[in-house]
C-alpha cells in the first residue's frame, strides 16, 4: 500500500517507518507541519532545513505544511486529501500508548478514507528502544523537560538507564524528551549534527541544531 508517514524527525516515527516498510508498504511521503512563519516544526521547534536534509538522507519526499495549533486538523486533512490524489491510501503514525492520540488519528483518517497504520501501538517501551538500538538507528536528544544536561546526548543504553532512574516514560510519550534521528536502516546517508544555542520555553529545554550530510552511505 502506498502511504505517507506523520513525521517529527524523531525515534518513534523513524521506527514506525521502518516497520511499515518491513511490512511491504511503500512510504512515499513524510508529512511534517511547521509554524506559520515556516521556520520550525510545529511540534518540536526543529529547523525546517534540518528536517528537509534528514528527508534527503532517507530518500523520501518531505511535505512541510504551515499551520497553527488551532487549524492543525484542518490543514492535516487538506494535506491528506492532496496525497490521496497522488494515490496514497494510508498513513503511518508512531503512537505507542496515548489513547487520545490514537482516537484522533482513527477519527480523522476515517473521515478522509485513509487507513491508519500504528505499527508501534502497545509495544512495551523498553522493547521498542532495544529494537531501535539493535537496528543501529542513532538519535540525539533535542528537547527535554528533564533538564538541559540531557540535550545533545545520544540515545543509548546509558541514557535508557538514566531515564529509568528518573522514573519517566522510556519513550518520552508524555513529552519528557524528543530526539532527532541521524542514521539507521531507512537512511541512504547519515547526518552530522552541528549543535547550536540552547533555549528554554516554559518547562522545556531545546537544542537548536543544524545538520550536514555525511559522505559515507549507510545502506546495508
Characterise the protein shown here.
The chain is an alpha/beta fold and 220 residues long. The protein has a single domain, classed as HUPs (Rossmann fold). The chain is built from 6 helices and 9 strands. The strands form 2 sheets. It has a 5-stranded parallel β-sheet with strand order 3-2-1-4-5, sandwiched between helices. Helix 1 links the parallel strand 1 and strand 2. The longest helix is centred in the middle third of the chain and has 14 residues, at 99-112. It is globular, with a radius of gyration of 16 Å.
The proportion of residues forming helix, as a percent range, comes to 25-40%
End-to-end distance, in Å? 24 Å
Question: Overall mean pLDDT score?
Answer: 94
In the CATH hierarchy, the architecture is 3-Layer(aba) Sandwich
- Which stretches are poorly predicted, pLDDT < 50 over at least 5 residues? none
List the secondary-structure elements in sequence, H or E.
EHEHEHEHEHEHEEE
**Shape descriptor:** globular
Backbone CA Rg: 16 Å
In total, how many beta strands? 9
Write the layout of secondary structure elements.
Blueprint: E1 2-6, H1 11-22, E2 26-34, H2 48-58, E3 61-66, H3 72-84, E4 90-92, H4 99-112, E5 115-117, H5 125-134, E6 138-144, H6 157-166, E7 177-183, E8 189-201, E9 204-217
Parallel strand pairs: 1-2, 1-4, 2-3, 4-5
Antiparallel strand pairs: 6-7, 6-9, 8-9
Amino acid at each position: 500500500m502506498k502511504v505517507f508517514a506523520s513525521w517529527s524527525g524523531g525515534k518513534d516515527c523513524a521506527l514506525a517507518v521502518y516497520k511499515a516498510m518491513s511490512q511491504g508498504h511503500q512510504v512515499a511521503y513524510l508529512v511534517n507541519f511547521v509554524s506559520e512563519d515556516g521556520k520550525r516544526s510545529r511540534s518540536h521547534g526543529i529547523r525546517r532545513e534540518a528536517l528537509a536534509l534528514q528527508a534527503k538522507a532517507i530518500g523520501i519526499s518531505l511535505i512541510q505544511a504551515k499551520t497553527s495549533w488551532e487549524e492543525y486538523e484542518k490543514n492535516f486533512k487538506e494535506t491528506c486529501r492532496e496525497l490521496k490524489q497522488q494515490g496514497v491510501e494510508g498513513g503511518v503514525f508512531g503512537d505507542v500508548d496515548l489513547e487520545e492520540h490514537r482516537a484522533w488519528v482513527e477519527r480523522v483518517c476515517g473521515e478522509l478514507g485513509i487507513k491508519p497504520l500504528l505499527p508501534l501501538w502497545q509495544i512495551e517501551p523498553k522493547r521498542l528502544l532495544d529494537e531501535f538500538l539493535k537496528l543501529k538507528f542513532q538519535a540525539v536528544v533535542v528537547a527535554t523537560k528533564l533538564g538541559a544536561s540531557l540535550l545533545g546526548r545520544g540515545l543509548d543504553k546509558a541514557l535508557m538507564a538514566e531515564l529509568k532512574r528518573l522514573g519517566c516514560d522510556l519513550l518520552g510519550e508524555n513529552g519528557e524528551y524528543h530526539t532527532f534521528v541521524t542514521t539507521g536502516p531507512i537512511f541512504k546517508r547519515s547526518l552530522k549534527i552541528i549543535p547550536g544555542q540552547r533555549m528554554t520555553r516554559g518547562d522545556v529545554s531545546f537544542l537548536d541544531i543544524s545538520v550536514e550530510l555525511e559522505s559515507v552511505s549507510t545502506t546495508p
